[in-house]
Amino acid sequence: MSSQTRVVVGLSGGVDSAVTAHLLKQQGYEVIGIFMKNWEDDDDSAYCSSNIDFVDAAAVADVLGIEIEHVNFAADYKDRVFSEFVREYQAGRTPNPDILCNAEIKFKSFLDHAMRLGAEKIATGHYARVRLNETTARHELLKGLDPSKDQSYFLHRLNQAQLSKTLFPVGELHKTEVRRIAQDIGLPNAKKKDSTGICFIGERPFREFLNRYISKEPGPIKDPTGRTIGQHVGLSFYTLGQRQGLGIGGIKAKGAQKGAGEHTPWFVARKDIAKNTLWVVQGHDHPWLLSEGLQANDASWCAGVPPAPGTYAAKTRYRQADAPCELLAGPDGHTAPGFGLHFPEAQWAVTPGQSAVLYDGEVCLGGGVINAALAAQG
User: Fold this and answer.
1) What pTM, to 2 d.p., does this model score?
2) pLDDT(290) > 50
3) CATH of segment(s) 290-375
4) Cβ distance 280 to 229 under 8 Å?
């Protein structure tokens, strides 16, 4: 590879992006690092790690012998990602800001900035792969080779222009190998633990964080019989399938025999926005938690065109095994801008606001935002 080919790497301070930069340098690219600062509402907070992360990213750049630039995308993030995140929560849905952040910040604002620096490509430490399909002349988004780390779910909104400019070197590796490489070349963050917080907001108490942006309106918690068994603090603070933090432990289902039901956990099953009511059920496999289909809108397809109706696999949440499904055609015979999925086997806690992402084998086709779950029959 010619040393004239410039690649700008998003250095987050983590080990994956650090090894990404190392691998590209090894392959002969001219590598420049960019540290993205996308949140600045509470820089002095114990939960805001961006200052520490930048120090780590700069230390990595020093060891690798590459330049690093600190770029502030906070205004873009607040306008394009965070405002939508708050709107969705206020509407009673459960959004996934990491997906929007990838589409709007890491592969738009960052990509544009990199191009202004004369880059031909950008690279990040995501566990995914990009392949040019010689037959269709389209770029395909593929799952990362480490099934426990695959992040294609979060990248499903990337389009052809973005995929054609992107490299994912660690997508070809398992995490254990990435750690080994980092250790071997003496990276200072080789043993740094992975971040699990919301994209650029960090690992803070989530309800406390949302409190700042969303008004609380308490209301009743009801069981399937209509009995009020508690009070919620505001529907925005709960998600379907949630088990912890309901404040109703020890209450048993109406009609349960004495001594039975006390220890069967309660789960959030429905949110009635109009009546400000949170409905809960006892038992992981209660029918209210199961769906045989869904409707999604705001579809985005990696190929630029929707796939044909037919049999595929889908994830309705990250870290879920691929579930066989049927992609249904709309009334006009197409699957855009929204689509329906039918599952032969009922899915658990399909949640409006989350993304339904479609796969054909290892190829991530794209997906959409879940608008409604279709209850399992029976």
Assistant:
1) 0.91
2) yes
3) 2.40.30.10
4) yes
